[in-house]
């Protein structure tokens, strides 16, 4: 994800998506705030660096609620 963020940001700038999911982000919590876009909220499910991970960009004006209880730790 780190080397593809410029491409993802360009797509978000076009406002083509209400929600955009990215899989296999391969980042951990050491990449805290570099994935920011002014018109989108970012929700991440990080794994260890170098493998797996999910990220969602959700348009700011959409109402969402993250349900962590429905996110099993063992799910990859």
| Cα Rg | 12 Å
Mean pLDDT, to the nearest integer, reads 82
Flag low-confidence runs. Answer: none
Please indicate the percent range of residues in DSSP E strands (runs of 2 or more): 15-25%
Please report the distance between the alpha carbons of the first and last residues: 17 Å
Which word captures the global form?
globular
Structural class: alpha+beta
User: What is the ordering of alpha helices and beta strands?
Assistant: HEEE
Count of helical regions? 1
Cross-sheet strand order for the largest sheet: 1-3-2
Could you give a short account of the major beta sheet? 3 strands, antiparallel
The count of strands amounts to 3
Task: State the helicity in percent bands.
Answer: 10-25%
Written account of the structure:
The protein is α+β, with helices and mostly antiparallel strands. The protein contains one helix and three strands; from the N terminus they run αβββ. It has a three-stranded antiparallel beta sheet, with no helix packed on it. It is globular.
């Amino acid at each position: 994800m780190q080397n593809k963020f410029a491409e993802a940001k360009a797509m978000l700038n076009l406002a083509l998506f209400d929600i955009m999911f990215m899989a296999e982000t391969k980042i951990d919590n050491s990449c805290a705030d570099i994935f920011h876009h002014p018109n989108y909220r970012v929700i991440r499910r990080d794994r260890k660096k170098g493998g797996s991970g999910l990220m969602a960009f959700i348009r700011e004006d959409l109402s969402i609620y993250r349900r962590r209880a429905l996110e099993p730790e063992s799910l990859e």
